[in-house]
Amino acid sequence: MPLQQNMNNSLNFSGGPGALPATVLAQVQEAIICVPEVGLSILGISHRSEWFAEVVRELENNIRRLLGLDQGYHVLFLQGGATQQFSMVPMTLLHGKTEPPEYLHTGYWSGKVLGEARKETKLRVLWSGESDGFHRLPADEELDFSATAPYLHYVSNETVEGLQFHRVLGRDDVPRVCDMSSDFLSKPCEADRFGIIYAHAQKNIGPAGVTVVLIRDELLQDMPDNLPGWLDYRSHIKAHSNYNTPPVFAIYVVLLVTRWLLDDIGGLNAMNTLNQRKAALLYEALDQSDGFYQGRAAMADRSLMNVVFNLATPELEQRFLAASRDAGFSGLSGHRAIGGIRASIYNGLELHAVEKLIDFMLEFQKTR
Q1: Which end of the chain has the least Cβ crowding within 10 Å, N or C?
Q2: Under CATH, which architecture does the 267-367 domain have?
């Protein structure tokens, strides 16, 4: 596998799982052999141990600190990925409701949400970008929110198409539910304006295997009583995210990432400043390439997490990808649904990696 031998963790632009901070990787490497305060490998520590209970407590508190959340929200660490939340949300919030929930169809992942939610309920698609090829997001005047909807659901960042909402949508009197899988903890997000936020870890905050769910306590009051325990938020709240054997390793890595965000980065405002800088440099390279690199998303809706672009032909894109692999970059292939190039610049990817990618892009343009 000679190509992979040339690759570098620091140049990992994968759309997911994303790059982890170098300091976290070093701590994980140590923990796989031995967690210092326990004397055992993280892969062999019981989920029923007091040490792990403290990991969960600290992680809950760290997320509350980062987002400014009070005790009116529960913080859960679940399995099943964001995909399980596609079903759990309507199962939880529609009990006794007659009006349809409202959903936005803004890209690949919100389309996946619709497919699962329709198995549970009839819904209203408030806006869809499908006819436009998902090149943009709706403006405020295109959205007519209902005051009687049980909830509004949207995806904050579409990783495939490189689109991101830079504002909070909806009405304050209708619960907002947001899939923040690919921009969670990348910036401040006014979390207290949402009823439910969910985010799988493998973009900004850890490895695959754990999904963070924030749920406002008052939304639990009208839940149905006949849900399976595994699909009932109350079961997980009562068990402190230990209802069944949890992914101890993945949760521990998320804890390390939150410590990094708090202690090394200095919080979400500082993280946002770094992410803004990375994105600005990369988009500037696209915009100044005289059309050699063609950005996909409308400028106002460009994602700070996923920079998606094309070259003139698929053949040229394949040469770009082959050359990038030879140069030590990984993860630059666009999603299988649309092809092209995608540079994912999540929290763990450092500024110097973006600068190296831009240098590579400039050199590739000169030689082609």
Answers
A1: N
A2: Alpha-Beta Complex (3.90)
